């Protein structure tokens, strides 16, 4: 099972060792014996379950203790391991005990048996390796049962916010759903409930919808004017409302000439793209047989709507019929235009 959650910064205090992943069991597992035998020294410092059992973590760290992963693929290379109990960030451990601060992060949490945990983590890490922002840790959620493990994979420093309305997404239920049924890491359950935005909405309309919610919450602002000002500054930085660059790089089919493509490009520009909502600019470039079509849109929603509706355009069909191999097709947020 996979879920998402945000966790504030906390401390782990325990017994630390270091070594190679290949000999992990030999040097890391004995640390639990040292932890258990000396537990009376820290039992007043660690956080506990409702039944009084300590919150136990198998915490990892890099050799310099900078909250970095063990190597590029996660559970590889060498590093440090702590058999630990969770504690408040400001605790002072007694002599002979180590303390690490685990920073505030948003995690993908993978629940499994201990026997399956390494395999479950490896499968996930292969898919999201570039998103992992720090050390991976294991939490034992069931008191007295070390066979059940929650693997905490940090995917964002701090709190994740919906890239449409800005809502903090701190627990699994807050995350929206992608079209394939998986959780959306970009959008909340209100803005993206079933793999799409429920309807068209401008950024200004989103601001007006969020103003009363922000005022009622009262954490950051107390009146509508302040809420509107804050949202007007924050929402333009979010993915849905940033200008988007849509890029497609491709090679032509055999027998198709540059003149054929340029003529089709003029037609799609005249009869389709120029009339699409949110269109800003377009450039068509070529080098060494590779063509790149780069279109700038006002928002991601405009770009996605243009792509979805393009199948109905005869000029679009003609243009794409000339394309052979597609090398890249992607949307990129536009950070700055000069």
Question: What can you see in these coordinates?
Answer:
The chain has about 350 residues and is α+β, with helices and mostly antiparallel strands. The chain has helices at about 25-30, 30-35, 115-130, 205-215, 225-235, 260-270, 300-310, 315-320; strands at about 1-5, 10-20, 55-60, 80-85, 100, 105-115, 135-140, 150-155, 160, 170, 175, 185-190, 245-250, 280-285, 290-295, 325-335. It has three domains: about 1-155, Regulatory factor, effector binding domain (Multidrug-efflux Transporter 1 Regulator Bmrr, Chain A, Alpha-Beta Barrel), CATH 3.20.80; about 165-235, no CATH class; about 245-335, Alpha-Beta Plaits.
Distinctive features:
single chain, 338 residues, alpha+beta, Multidrug-efflux Transporter 1 Regulator Bmrr, Chain A, Alpha-Beta Plaits, 8-stranded antiparallel β-sheet, 4-stranded antiparallel β-sheet, 8 helices, 33% strand, elongated
């Amino acid at each position: 099972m996979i879920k998402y959650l945000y966790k504030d910064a906390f401390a782990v205090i325990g017994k630390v060792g270091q070594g190679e992943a290949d000999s992990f069991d030999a040097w890391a597992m004995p640390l639990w014996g040292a932890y258990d035998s000396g537990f009376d020294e820290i039992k007043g410092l660690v956080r506990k379950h409702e039944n009084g059992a300590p919150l136990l973590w198998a915490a990892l760290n890099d050799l310099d203790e900078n909250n970095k992963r063990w190597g590029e693929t996660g559970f590889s290379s060498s590093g440090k391991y702590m058999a630990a109990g969770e504690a408040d960030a400001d605790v002072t451990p007694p002599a002979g005990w180590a303390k690490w601060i685990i920073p505030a992060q948003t995690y993908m949490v993978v629940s499994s048996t201990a026997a399956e945990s390494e395999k479950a983590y490896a499968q996930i890490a292969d898919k999201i390796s570039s998103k992992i922002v720090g050390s991976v840790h294991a939490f034992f959620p069931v008191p007295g049962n070390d066979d059940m493990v929650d693997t905490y994979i940090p995917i964002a420093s701090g709190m994740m916010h919906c890239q449409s309305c800005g809502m903090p997404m701190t627990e699994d239920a807050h995350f929206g759903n992608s079209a394939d049924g998986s959780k959306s890491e970009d959008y909340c359950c209100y803005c993206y409930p079933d793999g799409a935005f429920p309807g068209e909405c401008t950024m200004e309309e989103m601001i007006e919808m969020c103003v009363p919610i922000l005022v009622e919450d009262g954490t950051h602002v107390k009146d509508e004017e302040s809420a509107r000002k804050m949202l007007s500054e924050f929402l333009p930085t979010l993915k849905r409302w940033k200008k988007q660059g849509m890029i497609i790089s491709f090679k032509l089919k055999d027998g198709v000439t540059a003149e054929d493509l340029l003529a089709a490009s003029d037609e799609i520009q005249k009869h389709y793209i120029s009339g699409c909502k949110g269109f800003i600019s377009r450039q068509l470039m070529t080098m060494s047989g590779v063509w790149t079509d780069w279109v700038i849109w006002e928002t991601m929603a405009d770009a996605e709507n243009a792509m979805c509706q393009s199948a109905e355009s005869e000029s679009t069909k003609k243009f794409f019929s000339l394309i052979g191999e597609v090398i890249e097709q992607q949307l990129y947020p536009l950070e700055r235009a000069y």
